[in-house]
Amino acid sequence: MIELRKAIQAILKDVHPRTWYGMAPKSAKFPYLVYTLSSFDQGEGFVFINLDIDCWDNTDDTTEQEALLKSVHRAIHSKVIKTDDFAVALYADRQMSIIDNEPTIKRRMNTYQGRLYKRGENTCI
User: Fold this and answer.
1) Running DSSP on this structure, what letter comes out for residue 4?
2) Residue 123 confidence class, pLDDT cut points 50, 70, 90
3) CATH code of the domain made up of 2-118
4) Engineered SS bond to 82: which of 34, 38, 74, 87, CB 3.0-4.6 Å?
5) CB neighbours (10 Å) of residue 77?
6) Is the pTM of this model over 0.85?
7) Which of 16, 6, 20 is nearest to 83 (CA)?
């Protein structure tokens, strides 16, 4: 999944420079994006992909955060990522507000799903 993660990182960095995989550093300035990938190999060269993009902010006004997620949506929804080793199409699944333990933190998450097709039998995604 390293190649897919690199491709998604490049897309998201074009949308917003403060983007991290898995976890943001403690010194990260708000707002920022954190994304995670999960996969399930369905066999016969197909892999189900789930992409969660979490937007973090610490202001009461969520306008900037919502605009940022709208830009993320435009960049990711219906996106087809192709390499020599695989092709994947990502589609919006849902958007959620997440209650954080820290009351000053505002979080919104977009979730995308897709199906990845591996090219070749020994492909490492």
Assistant:
1) H
2) very low
3) 3.30.2000.30
4) 87
5) 13
6) yes
7) 6
